[in-house]
Amino acid sequence: MKKEPGTRRSILQGWLAATAAGLLLPRQSAQAQLLPSTPSCDGVAPTIAGTEGPFYTPRTPQKANFREDGTGEPLTLAGFVVTRDCKPIANALVDLWHADAEGEYDNEGYRMRGHQLTDAQGRYVFETIVPAPYERRTRHYHVKVQAPEGRMLTTQLYFPGENRNESDFLFNPLLLMRVEKVDDGKIGRFDFVLSDA
User: Sign of dihedral through CA atoms 24, 60, 156, 137?
Assistant: First the structure.
């Protein structure tokens, strides 16, 4: 009997009950399950930087729900912010922005833009949509992550299996998210490892 994929809510509830050390994902294995456990964090490399791009807007509102900003395929983006030895970083800033379902950025306001602080276990969750590719770019999210009193990491997150990945001049496979189809959309996972926290 085939197992049903479940919903974003059911998968997220199980994930929220976990800790960073038990769920940190190695980014090298594209075939990994969405939330496998790993025995330790030895040898985990820090998340690499990526370009900010021309569409960053500072002083974003604190919000976790971008779906109110427009329509598109629902995606829940979640993960941990941790140190190199898998210690969760509480109150880390996670600032997210991306194009809408038409490939457009809101450069006048804060549609598809916002930030949040991680909880005591280093977890963040955004309810958003799958952005459209545009011009020479593949689908991607822009992110800034900063531990309290740490340096800012600016990077981009990419979707696996996209036709434009290899032709995108900024694409880096180390920044691929885990993305799974579920009954009510998609759920994406990326854990940020900060080197100076």
Answer: positive
pLDDT digits (tens, 9 = 90+) for 28-53: 333 333 433 333 466 678 999 999 98
Give the whole-angstrom CA distance, residue 26 versus residue 149: 26
| Contact between 153 and 135 (Cβ < 8 Å) | no
Q: Reply yes or no on whether 151 is catalytic.
A: no
Residue tagged active-site, from 142, 158, 178, 189: 142
Residue 142 designated active-site: yes
The pTM score is: 0.82
Which amino acid type is present at position 35?
L
134 is catalytic: yes
Helices (H), ranges, the chain: 8-16, 20-23
Active site residue 140: yes
